[in-house]
Structures are given as C-alpha cells and as structure tokens.
Design the sequence.
DNA sequence: CTAAAACTCTCATGCCGCTTTAGAGTTTTT
DNA sequence: AAAAACTCTAAAGCGGCATGAGAGTTTTAG
C-alpha cells in the first residue's frame, strides 16, 4: 500500500478481477508483476500496468482467447487484432443466429408442455380449427404400419439426417408426424405416405417443404403409436356417423414427446386428424 | 448389423453423434446400451433407443446441461423441464444481449483501428465537424495534470468501477477522455475538469450521462499524454492566429489505445479539440 | 478356414479460463 | 508479541466432449 507498489490483492481489487486470475496471467505471461520479491515470491504491481490489464480485459470482452491476446500483445500488430476481430465478428453472428433458433425452440417447447398438461383425455374426439402449418417431409420408403416401430424410427432418422445433409437448421423435432392419403383412410387401411417434421414459417423454402392448409379438422387423441389403428378407425366411424365429408389427407401428429421417460418406448401424445368440409 | 442390435458405431452414425459421446452417455447413465456383452464388453443398442437419444439431443439443443437432462429423464417430471426451460430462456436472452454489446464493441474497435491507420501524423492541426457524442463522466477529484500518469490511472479506474457499481453495461473503453473548462484552456492552464468514456447513443440515461454537442472543432493529433501540455498550447495559438472563437470546453480524446503494447506505457493516439464558432 | 481389415474396449490426457482447496509462509494490524 | 489478513505453490475440478495408446473382438475377403 506504500509508495508505488500494489500487492496482488490491491491490483485485483481496483481492476475488478480475481487474485487467482492475476496469478494465472502471470504464469502464462500475459501480464507479469513489475516486481517479484525473490524471497517471499510476493507479486507487486505498478498502477501504470493497468493500461495493459485494461487492454487484456477489453480484448477478452470482445471474445478473444487468452492465447490470441497474448499473441497480439507480443506482436504489437494491429492487423492481427483486426483479422482476429473480423473472424470473431462472424462467430458472434453465428452464435446469435443459433441462440435465436434456440430461443424459438425453447418457447415452442414450453408451449408444447402447456398444451400437454391441458390436453383432452385419451380417446376424446374434437372438431377444431387448425391453422396452416409448414412441414419438411419425405415419402416413406415402405409402409411402416406393416412393420414395427423400428421401421418408423429408421424413417425418422433418415428424415433427420436429410436435414443435416442439406445443411438446414436442425429442428430438433418434438413435432414429427406422418401422413396418409385420404383414400387409404376412407378405405380403413393404414398406408403411410409421408413422414414429416413441423417447421417454422420462415424456414428456408425447398422441394421438401410443404404447406398444410388451415381448416376444420376432426381429431382424436391418443398416447401410443400402437393404438393408432384402432383410433383411426374410430375417427373414420365418427366422420361417417356425423356425415362429415373428409376433405384431405389423414395426419398423425406428435403433439409432444415429453412422456419419453421410459427407456425404450416413444411414449407420445398424438393427435390423429382429418380435414373435413361442411359443404 | 444383424437382426435388431446396433453396434456403438452404427448407433453413432444414424444419430449423428460420436462414439465417444455415446460411451460418455453410458458412463454417466444418460443412455445405457440395451445389451452389453459380458466378455467383450461391447455395447449394443436397439433402434428403439433412438427415442431417448432424440430427447437427449433435443434437450441439449435447448441448452440444457447433461446433468439436468439426466434429472429430467429420471424424474419424468414435465414441471421440471418447464422450470429449467424458463430459466434457460432468461439465460439465452441475457446471452443475446451480451453478444449484441460485444458485436457493437467489435465493430467500434475495427473502425477504430481503421481510423488509426488512416489518421494524420502527429502535430497535424485540422478543422473538422464532429457529430454529437454521449459520454459517461465523473468530475476529476484532483487536477491530474499536477501529478503523473498514476493519478490519471486511478481516476480512470474509479470511473470504470462506478460503471460496475451502478450495474451499467461495461463499455470496455477504448474511447476515454478528459475535459477542461474553456476558461482554463484560454488562460493556457491545464486544469482537468471531468474524465469520461464515450458511450452509445442508446446507453441508459442517468446523471452521469452527458451530451457533447456536434459542431466544428479545431483539433490537433498526438500520441502521448506527456505531450498534451505542449500540443494544447499549439492548439490555442492556432486559434488565436486564425481568430477562431473558442465556443466551448476543451476535450482530450483517446481515439485509440491499440498502441498499448509496451509493458507499462499507455501508448495512445489522442485528439485534442476545442469547439469553435464562426460567428 | 485363415488373415487382414475394421471395429471396439478401457484408461488416460487435453481443451479453456478460470475457481477452489490445502497447507505453508509473509505482512500488516492490534 | 500475538493475531489477523494476506500471499505463496501446487493440484484438482468444471463441462462436454476429442484424441490417442495399446489391447482385444468381430466382420470381411480370399
């Protein structure tokens, strides 16, 4: 505290930094105390060293790595800082884009959970207006209804990997689904047509992107793929009984997958749906 | 590749994940292979386990920690996910705000470097229009011109710490400066009045925030605080010779500090300036 | 059926920018 | 002179993997 020298603690305090950080910086040679007692090995700093420490903290705040900072300070080359910063700028922009996606995904998920808690009980039939949706889809290569869940899993994987292959933003689907042609549905068959994931409205356009029109849908809720056949049948019966005219393809939509806690089973909350026309 | 079981490599491939990550997940109990050969210790997975792995990757993509994911999967509590996500949402928003600040700082710095490279040589006198600026300032507690650079360093530290104390976004100033009353300047004295850092236009308003009006300034460039006295004198003489009427307080502005590579000295690029009126 | 290729195992180490802890020594204050 | 406050070194820990060594196992090719 005397004359000119600052102990490591004092230096740390006035610079809002921790003592151990200062020691680390000494060790890696970022900033060395101007004097080190040879016997006690105590470090002593000079207040003029704040200039350098400021620079370090400033560059750190710009997201530079300690290694880079060291290089810059050693080389004294402003071109070097500039090239690092230009690169860093790109990085930051990417990070922001990712965070934006993440934020959207988090919000969707929270909503999805809310919906899950308030959703009707299994077997409930509703008639609801569903706004338009955008999907990223692929035709199913085989009718997975004829096989087990394994085939469905495979198709889903392929869909996901196609997203990755095409360098598209990953959706991290909690909202996947499958479609089936209206005709198959009306005949009481189960013939898968397409598998899809829901995407945001601003998802980049491509051949695999389709729009599902808004409209009134007759829906039935269930919680396992295993019951799809039975519930699809009930849905069809309901439409017939009430003379609803099926106006488009059948959709099996995963509303939420957050019941996946069981080790192996995709415990889901599903909504089977067909668009209906009231002439 | 036979019947049902997938080797770790196959599982990794279809899930776009690395083998070592799968091993890690096994170790920490996030997802265990459905069968482990007791002799060879080879891990084998079932494609149905994709459901769980999807959930894991999904939650990871939302920014959750592996520990949190594990808790969620073990508890099966959707409320838990929700509370984690709500917390995470706040985090992400903060991160984005920080990245925005960072991006702005990076851009400012790149500009500053550009300016540095194209700046006039030492001693050049210019008459330039300077747009309005916003500063966060504090009166200097003593006239640091009477003392050495140490006192200036101290004042600067206090200014910085006052930013931190008031929980204001840190500027990480590369643009600090000091002001002096017009009267002192005209008398040829050096009497510090305020010390400041430049802030963005959208910096939160407070008592310490002031606006420096735009206008024509007579400026002189230099690269060391040590020369301030001499160059300030030249500036004054120049104004007198040309009959420029000094219209406001004197400012000593640090344009860039990127010449700080020397261990101790604040090697700067400075611009002394006084606003002038052309009646 | 054998040899080679491809895969998998465990265990250890490294990354980044610190923080934390333990145990010993030094300075400052009372 | 004792007590309090500080500082030292050295090592380990964090998170989420990646990488590598050296040994063993499974699949493929001939």
Sequence:
């Amino acid at each position: 505290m005397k004359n000119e020298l600052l102990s490591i603690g004092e230096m740390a305090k006035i610079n809002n930094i921790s003592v151990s950080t200062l020691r680390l910086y000494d060790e890696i040679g970022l900033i060395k105390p101007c004097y080190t007692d040879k016997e006690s090995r105590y470090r002593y700093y000079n207040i003029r060293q704040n200039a350098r420490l400021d620079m370090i903290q400033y560059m750190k705040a710009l997201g530079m790595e300690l290694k880079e900072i060291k290089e810059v300070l050693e080389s004294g080359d402003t071109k070097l800082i500039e090239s690092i910063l230009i690169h860093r700028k790109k990085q930051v922009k990417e990070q922001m884009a990712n965070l934006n996606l993440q934020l959207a995904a988090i919000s969707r998920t929270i909503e999805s959970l809310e919906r899950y808690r308030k959703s009707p009980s299994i077997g409930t039939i509703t008639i609801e207006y569903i706004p338009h949706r955008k999907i990223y889809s692929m035709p199913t290569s085989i009718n997975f209804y004829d096989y087990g869940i394994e085939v469905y899993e495979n198709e889903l994987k392929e869909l996901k990997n196609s997203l990755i292959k095409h360098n598209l933003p990953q959706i991290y689907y909690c909202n996947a689904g499958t479609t089936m042609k209206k005709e198959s549905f009306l005949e009481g068959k189960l013939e898968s047509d397409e598998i899809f994931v829901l995407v945001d409205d601003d998802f980049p356009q491509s051949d695999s992107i389709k729009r599902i029109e808004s409209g009134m849908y007759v829906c039935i809720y269930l919680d396992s793929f295993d019951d799809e056949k039975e519930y699809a049948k009930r849905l069809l019966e309901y439409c017939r009984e009430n003379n609803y005219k099926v106006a488009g393809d059948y959709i099996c939509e995963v509303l939420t997958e957050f019941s996946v806690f069981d080790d192996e089973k995709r415990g889901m909350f599903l909504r089977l749906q067909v668009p209906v026309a009231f002439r």
